[in-house]
Structure formats: structure tokens, C-alpha cells
Known about the structure:
The chain is an alpha/beta fold. The chain contains 5 helices and 7 strands. It has a 5-stranded mixed β-sheet. It is globular, with a radius of gyration of 21 Å.
Amino acid sequence: MPMKNLSLFIPLGLFSAFAGLLAIGLNRDPSAIPSVLIDRPMPEFALSSLQSKEPGLSRADLAGRVSLVNVFASWCGICVVEHPTLMKLSASQSVPIYGINWKDAPGSGQAWLTRYGDPYLKKGADANGRLAIELGVTGAPETFVVDRSGRIRYKQIGAITDEVWEEKLKPLIAKLEAES
Length: 180
């Protein structure tokens, strides 16, 4: 085959490769970003409280029960969307929920909780974002399911809606609670 005819197939091959990569990308769930921390222990941490009269939040607080650790901020618009679901879960006492107030100005996180309600059993301020970096947080809200032994078993990126709770988190938590 002459070299001239072969050169016609190069652009076709490049286009086919590009189209294949595009098709793979379009079929992926953008909220399903894998976390390297799945099945690994929650990092050691001790956060200060949002109010001086309350205790802060540490890894030791999570021991012994399956729990949710929710990263939120007063500047996070989607946090307002997920908040009614967190309030319902808190009222039903179906799972303990702990809050990490991420990169907020002093007083802003507590003011936000005073305005919208406080679903958290305990909460801590991650003002410098160090814990969020260790957890691989890319934005708020993000929520981690932590098992009884303190291992991260799931990472929810984005809002916990009623649908996310019923279809993903509730069955996982039931499974983890049934494990001995």
C-alpha cells in the first residue's frame, strides 16, 4: 500500500481513539471519585469546638458505632440542600452524625447551625483544612461512613438527599451494624 494512502488512516485512528475516550468519560458517574482511604482507619485528629463551652471532635468520639462524618461550611450552598435530610436523620437517631466545619471564619459555622439547626452529635472546626486534606476532601459537602472500628467504609461526595440515604447509605449502615 502506498505511503500516501496509509497517511489517510492516521487522522481516522486518532479520531477513533478520542471518541472512545470521550465515550468512556461520559459513562462515568462524576460523584463516584474513588477514595484511597476506603477500608483504612480514619486519620487521628482532635479539632477544637465551634463554641468555647462545648467539647471539640476527635477520632476517639467515633469509636464503637457506625457513624457519619459530614464535612460542611457556612459558605457551601449545597450544604443547605442536604441539611433537611441530616436534620431528619438526627431526629430519628438512626445513625450518629458528626460534623467537621471546613475552612470557615471563626463563629460562621456555629451561626450557620443556629440558623438552620444542628444535626451533629459533636462537631469540630477544621479552620486550616488540615484534616480535610488528610481525608482527601475536594469540596463541601462530603460525608464519610465510618465503621465501629474507626475505618472509613464509604465516601459520599455531594449532598445526602433522601434518595442517597435510602439507596446508598442506609443499606450500607445496616450491613455494617450487622457485622460483629
